[in-house]
Amino acid sequence: MTAIEQLSDIAVPPDVRDRMVAVRRDLHRHPELSRQEHRTAQLIADRLGEVGVDGVAHPVADTGVVGWVRGGEPGPTVLVRADIDALGITEADRGHDYVSTVEGVSHACGHDGHVAVALALAERLTAERDALAGNVVLLFQPAEERGGGARRMLDARAWPDDLTPSASLALHIATELPVGTVDIRPGTIAASAQSVAVKFGSPGGHAAYPHLTPDPVVCASAFVMAAQTIVSRTLAPRSAAVVSFGRIHGGEDRSAIPAEVELEGTIRTYDNDDLGIIQRRLRQIAEGTAATHGCTVEVDLRDDTYPACVNAPAITATVAAAARAVLGEGNVTAERVVAGADDMSEILMDLPGCYFWVGGANPARGLTFPHHSPEFDFDEDAMVVGLAVMEQAVRATLRSPPSGPNGTSEKL
């Protein structure tokens, strides 16, 4: 018997699956970009009211929603996060009846599925709240893709004062993993990321007389090459990081040395301390290269940094044990670390927790395209797995809350 067949029998009734699919497909047809998730947020708030949670705050941080369930027995509070925004990507028409109806916007990262799972979790916990030893805060977060919604939601503190969470949980559907499996590992699971822009300037001049003006094209080229030494010569050999420039613009005429050249790129690393080192060295190299070539320079380390996602070992062990109890030993791995970034990291920095991956791939149905692809879609049985594992993870975490200096956060 497969993991999905087991779940259908013991954990997730067909009517619950049907409601998850209906919600997911509704959201998939009507995707909304970061900080524009008004319809999505209203759907979430309405559904939380329908299932009878103990409270709903809406809107939070403009387009977010927070709901909470009070258990019948005393205990700690666990926060469960679901991101809700879509991407500015035109969805390929794969012939199904839930393709995006919004031109240039689609749920190409699975956030529609995350919302559906969290709403089903609210339904399940509310129905059994009398036996729940503790409380659950459900945080539906806008602007994961653009805008840092997690920090704004945390700063809003939209839950009651007596329900301050001590732990956090979240899941992400992954089409790199087969449906029916999960990957749960302690430590770093996703990279930090920051955008950077560097502009080199000069008076500019005629291309025939390069000796009369500093050349920002040559300067920018030298800078890009020198920046690569940060990873190979500044960071320790054990460190993994990437400094990439994906856009360069300068000049309007082939016979003119331009007055400025601008580069844009990203910094990614799995270690938050390394991020600070890269930031400092990038600025030093930019200023040094500009001085060498006689150019001016402006360095913009943009305020969009996502720290690395780091799972707390004790809570992660609790979640992994809960997953094995649901899916069986062979369907739970601890291998996946991604170079992409996610602002669940902000929540994990304040609240020790676990962010885990839920397999959504089904090669037999052609459901293997990566996140952010126009072809992206996932096997909807992934939501069944996600719900079953998340529900057991919540219950297990409530029974074994974090302890010690990292158990609670002064920030909250």
From TrEMBL:
Cofactor: Mn(2+)
Entry GO MF terms: metal ion binding; N-acetyldiaminopimelate deacetylase activity
Xref: Pfam families: M20_dimer, Peptidase_M20
Coiled-coil spans in chain: none
Chain sites annotated for binding Mn(2+): C109, H111, E145, H172, H372
Free-text cofactor note: The Mn(2+) ion enhances activity.
Keyword set, alphabetical order: Hydrolase, Manganese, Metal-binding
UniProt-recorded name of the protein: N-acetyl-L,L-diaminopimelate deacetylase
The organism of origin for this protein: Euzebya pacifica
Lineage: Bacteria, Bacillati, Actinomycetota, Nitriliruptoria, Euzebyales
